[in-house]
Amino acid sequence: MSDENVKNETLEEEKTKKELKQEKKEEKKALKKVDELEKEVSDLKEKNKEYQSKFELADKEKDDWKNKYYEAYANLSNTRRQVEKEGDEFKKYANKSLLTEFIPVLDSFDMAFKTEPKDPAIKNYLVGFKMIHSKLLEFLAKMNVEVISPNIGDDYDPHKMEALSTVEGDEDNKVAEVYYKGYKLHDSLLRASSVVITKKKVSSSNENQTSSSKDDETNKVENK
User: Fold this and answer.
1) Please, are residues 174 and 153 in contact by the beta-carbon 8 Å criterion?
2) What is the spatial order of strands in the sheet that 161-169 belongs to?
3) Measuring CA to CA, which residue among 166, 169, 191 is closest to residue 180?
4) First and final CA of the chain: distance in angstroms?
5) Distances (CA, A) of 118 to 70, 104, 115, 129, 200
6) What is the pTM of this model?
7) Residues near 179 by Cβ (< 8 Å), separated by ≥ 6?
8) Helix (H, G, I), strand (E, B), or coil: what is residue 68?
9) Could you tell me if 179 and 161 are in contact, meaning their C-beta atoms sit under 8 angstroms apart?
10) Cα(197)–Cα(202) distance, integer angstroms
11) Number of H helices and number of E strands within the chain?
12) E strand or H helix at 134, and its extent?
């Protein structure tokens, strides 16, 4: 083999070695880059998990705040309705105590009208009093006050009437006499009407029978 050929082969080997060395260097470089990329991917995955966790937490907090908002809105609506109701009730019965003070005045008028005066001058005054009384009743009607004025023979209603005493009658619990009229504001009773009610009279035969029964019971006890 000539020197030229040997030289060429040597150059080829050196070139090959350089190329292999360069390839190895490039390979190391590529592997390093791959490692860096894998690390970046791993870091991104970790960050994604962290962000996902934060997102889920934020989403839960959003739902919690939404529920709190709905609850607060419902409570506010209920409070508003309650306040409106109480306001309406207050307006409805605001004059209750004042109207109650009118009742004795009306009683005085009713008592005065029960007696018919003989003196013409007093009769003229009575006409004026009746006009005043009528105006007062009109005023009370505008204030939603209802007069409870039972008639003789009406059924006794314990929700609107107060029984002051009883008298004998053909039936039980009938109005026998009216002492004072009652008054009601809307559905609230200002004062019950004061009445006398009937109690059915026990017949003589029933009284004798009752008395005989009592005597028999007494004798049985004594014989024992």
Assistant:
1) yes
2) 161-169, 193-200, 175-180
3) 191
4) 163
5) 76, 25, 9, 16, 39
6) 0.55
7) 164, 194, 195, 196
8) helix
9) no
10) 16
11) 4, 6
12) helix 120-142
β-strand pairing of 161-169 with 193-200: parallel
What is the distance between the alpha carbons of residues 203 and 206, in angstroms, rounded to a whole number? 5
Structure tokens at 75: 């409570």
Provide CB contacts within 8 A for 140, sequence distance 6+.
99, 102, 147, 183
Query: Cα–Cα distance between 36 and 30 in angstroms, integer?
Result: 10
> What is the pairing mode between strands 193-200 and 175-180?
antiparallel
Torsion of CA 170, 172, 173, 175, to 10 degrees: 10
| Tokens matching residue 81 | 């309705």
Residue with tokens 């080997």: 13
* DSSP-derived 3-state class of residue 210: helix
Q: What token pair was written down for 52?
A: 């996902």
134: tokens are 């009528």
Contact between 195 and 178 (Cβ < 8 Å): yes
Lookup result for tokens 């505008």: 142
Return per-residue pLDDT of the chain as tens, 224 residues.
Answer: 566 665 566 667 676 777 777 777 787 787 788 788 888 888 888 888 888 888 888 888 888 888 888 888 888 888 888 888 877 777 778 888 888 888 999 999 888 888 887 888 777 888 888 899 999 999 889 989 999 999 999 999 999 999 999 999 999 999 999 999 999 998 899 999 999 999 988 765 555 555 555 555 545 544 54
